[in-house]
Write a structure and sequence with these properties.
By secondary structure, this protein is mainly β. A 12-stranded antiparallel beta barrel has the order 2-3-4-5-6-9-10-11-12-13-14-15. The longest helix is centred in the last third of the chain and has 21 residues. The radius of gyration is 19 Å and the shape is globular. Keywords: Signal. This is Secreted protein.
C-alpha cells in the first residue's frame, strides 16, 4: 500500500538521522523528483524511476508463495505499525490472508490493510502480490475503500494491472543492492498514480517497539506525480517485512514503527478471510469498471481441489 503509507514531512529525529547517515554504511542518494510540469505526463514522469517492468504471467508459479527475505507474505501473519500524524494516533494493520485472486493473468496473494485514525477505520484495502520465479515480489493492484466518520464513501484510488492502462510494479527486488536502478512500484494513469523506489541502505541495525533487528534494508520511496509529497524511508527486517516508515520532506510529519508481529490462529484467520471476501464482493458494485473486471477472490484450498473423473 505504497501511497497510503506515504509519510507526510521531513523532521527526522537526531537518532534516526544519525542512523540513516552513519559513516561506513551502504547508502544511495535519494532519487530526484521531476518538476510538476514534467509530472503532468505519465510517460515523462516515468523518467523518475524507469519504465514499468513487463509482466509475464508465465514467470509466476500457479500456486502463489511469497517467500522473499525482506517481504515474506505467509498467510496468517499480522503486522501492526503505529505512529501519529498531525497529533493524531495512526495505526496500520496488515494481515496476510490465505485467499488468492487472479490479476492480469497472475494468481496473487490477497493482503488486507486497514488504516485507523484512533479507533476509526479510515481506509480498508485489498492489495495483491505475487512472487516470480526469480524471487522478486510484484504488486498487481489495490482496492482501497475510503471511510469518513465510519461511513464508506467509495474507492476512487482503485487500480488493477491490465485495466485502464495500469501496470504492475515491483514491491521488493529479488536481491536488493545499493546502486540497483530505481524501480516502478505501480502505475495507473487514470488516477495519476505512480510510485517509485530505490535501495537506499543495506545492512542496517534498527530498533522498534517489537525488537531490534540487524541486516535491515532501507528503501527510499517517492511519487513523481506528487512532487510535494516528499519521500518515505521504509525499513525492512529479514523474515519480517516492513518495520518502520520515516518521512522526508512532507508538510505533515508521520512516522510508523512495528508494535506487533503475530501469527493468527486458524479461527482468527478465517474471520479475516470472511471480512475480506465481503469487501471483495462489495468491490464489484463500488468499482465495476475496474475491480469488477477481475474474478472473485477465493480460498487457496479451492485451487488444490481436483474433482474425481
Amino acid at each position: 500500500m505504497p501511497r497510503r503509507l506515504r509519510a507526510s514531512a521531513a523532521l527526522l529525529s537526531p537518532i534516526v538521522t544519525a542512523l540513516l547517515l552513519a559513516p561506513g554504511t551502504a547508502t544511495a542518494d535519494a532519487p530526484k523528483v521531476p518538476s510538476p510540469a514534467t509530472a503532468k505526463s505519465g510517460a515523462r514522469a516515468q523518467n523518475g524511476c524507469g519504465n514499468p517492468p513487463a509482466l509475464r504471467p508465465y514467470a509466476f508459479p500457479s500456486a502463489p508463495r511469497v517467500t522473499n527475505r525482506f517481504l515474506p507474505l505467509k498467510p496468517g501473519t499480522r503486522l501492526v505499525l503505529k505512529g501519529d500524524v498531525a497529533g493524531e494516533d495512526h495505526t496500520v494493520v496488515t494481515t496476510v490472508t490465505d485467499l488468492t485472486k487472479v490479476i492480469d493473468g497472475v494468481r496473487t496473494v490477497v493482503v488486507f490493510d486497514q488504516d485507523l485514525n484512533g479507533k476509526k477505520v479510515q481506509e480498508s484495502e485489498l492489495a495483491f502480490f505475487a512472487q516470480d520465479w526469480r524471487g522478486a515480489v510484484w504488486r498487481l493492484g489495490e482496492y482501497p475503500e475510503i471511510y469518513e466518520n465510519g461511513k464508506l464513501t467509495g474507492a476512487p484510488d482503485t487500480w488493477i494491472s491490465g485495466v485502464q492502462g495500469a501496470k504492475a510494479g515491483i514491491a521488493m527486488l529479488a536481491r536488493p543492492r545499493v546502486g540497483s536502478p530505481t524501480y516502478t512500484e505501480g502505475l495507473a494513469p487514470e488516477i495519476d498514480f505512480l510510485d517509485c523506489a530505490t535501495v537506499f541502505q543495506t545492512g542496517q541495525s534498527v530498533c522498534v517497539p517489537v525488537s531490534c533487528f540487524d541486516n535491515v534494508l532501507v528503501t527510499d520511496e517517492f511519487a513523481p506525480l506528487d512532487p510535494e509529497g516528499g519521500h518515505q524511508r521504509k525499513s525492512y527486517a529479514p523474515h519480517v517485512g516492513n518495520i518502520k516508515v520515516v518521512p522526508v520532506g512532507e508538510a505533515n510529519p508521520e512516522t510508523l514503527a512495528l508494535t506487533e508481529f503475530t501469527r493468527l490462529s486458524a479461527k482468527e484467520l478465517a474471520a479475516v478471510d470472511k471480512e475480506v471476501l465481503k469487501q471483495d464482493k462489495r468491490g464489484y458494485k463500488i468499482s465495476p469498471d475496474v475491480y469488477g473486471t477481475t474474478p472473485p477472490a477465493e480460498p487457496a484450498r479451492v485451487r488444490a481441489f481436483v474433482p474425481a473423473l
